[in-house]
Design goal:
twelve-stranded mixed beta sheet; ten-stranded parallel beta sheet; 5 helices; 40 strands
Length: 344
């Protein structure tokens, strides 16, 4: 894809400083640049690169004040990061897509396809599957018996959609995602062994959900594991059986949610957060990375930190005192020693 700065500024509702006829053909890092690249300045710590970048165009905020002349053409916008999201979407949608069913795919019986389907090589689709319109399925994807996939979805290479899973519209699953595997459930036996508990439920994923590479979502033991509309899951996230995640909640990498927990709407869960099972997490909860949520969160819009997770600001104050404990212990020991000497 190649576009003039003038046309791009029109799409982004930006104003131009420099040559409006400069042509750009790809996004690029500000420190790397290169002719034909368009980059952005959204963080002040990268400002020095603005004056040395070899990119053809740069997105910057409308109110940013230049300290030195630059060679690149500027596009000034109200929100740099929102403009970058739109820009990347535009360049990404310009990538060519193949249509049709590859001859090296394996399609089961009683399978129904919508219009404008793209199915790559070595895809396996079992019987009784329903796939909507404008769906792209890359190589080595597996779709199990009875699964349903909505319109305008993208399944990248190696995705596994196991039997009975229901996927909504406009979902994107990145390589290695597994939807609908058995949960981690075993019954202890008298001899110390464990008997597997078979999971007979499914996974239901609503519209506009994005799931990162190697994330797993387990099927319900009975009933459904439910991921509501607009949820975004990073790479390497584990969602256990019968979990429910509310609309527009985001969860960062290496986080895990144990079975039957219900997370509310618009929550933000940081990386490596552990959420215990059978909990209820209120809407708008924000959990700092490396925290552990071990009890219900009843009040909405709280910020939590630590293990077990407590109020973020309380944790910061407590941690400040914690760092002083060796000195405080030493002072306490000296006071006790003086007190004992006086008593003698």
């Amino acid at each position: 894809m190649e576009i003039t700065v003038k046309d791009l500024a029109h799409v982004l509702n930006g104003t131009i400083e420099g040559d409006p006829e400069v042509r750009v053909n790809r996004p690029g890092k500000i420190e790397e640049g290169g002719e034909g690249a368009i980059t952005f300045l959204g963080n002040a710590k990268y400002e020095s690169y603005l004056y040395t970048t070899t990119a053809s165009a740069v997105l910057i905020s409308r109110d940013f004040q230049l300290k030195s002349p630059i060679n690149a053409t500027l596009i000034r916008v109200d929100d740099v990061y929102a403009s970058i999201a739109l820009l990347l979407e535009k360049f990404g949608s310009a990538q060519p897509k193949s249509n049709g069913i590859h001859p090296q795919s394996l399609i089961g019986t009683n399978t129904h396809f919508g219009q404008n389907i793209s199915i790559g090589p070595f895809v396996v689709i079992e019987e009784d599957v329903i796939i909507g319109d404008n769906v792209r399925i890359d190589s080595h994807v597996f779709i199990g018996r009875g699964a349903k996939i909505g319109d305008n979805c993208q399944l990248h290479s190696g995705v596994k959609i196991l039997y009975g899973s229901v996927i909504g519209d406009r979902c994107i699953f990145f390589p290695g995602v597994v939807i609908g595997a058995d949960g981690f459930g075993y019954a202890p036996q008298e001899d110390g062994s464990y008997k597997k508990i078979h999971h007979v439920g499914n996974v239901v994923i609503k519209n506009e959900v994005e799931i990162g590479s190697n994330t797993t979502i387990d099927r319900g033991s009975i009933g459904s594991t439910i991921i509501h509309q607009g949820v975004k899951l990073d790479n390497l996230v584990q969602i256990a059986h019968n979990v429910e995640i509310g609309e527009n909640t985001v969860i960062a990498a290496q986080a895990g949610v144990a079975g039957s927990t219900k997370i509310g709407k618009n929550c933000q869960i940081g990386g490596q957060v552990a959420v215990a099972g059978h909990l209820k997490i209120a809407d708008g909860t924000r959990v700092q990375g490396n925290s552990g949520v071990a009890s219900n969160v009843k009040e909405p819009n709280q910020a939590l930190f630590g293990y077990p997770a407590i109020d973020y600001h309380l944790f910061i104050r407590a941690h400040t005192i914690f760092k002083q404990l060796p000195d405080l212990a030493k002072r306490l020991y000296e006071l006790e020693k003086r007190s004992a000497q006086k008593e003698d």
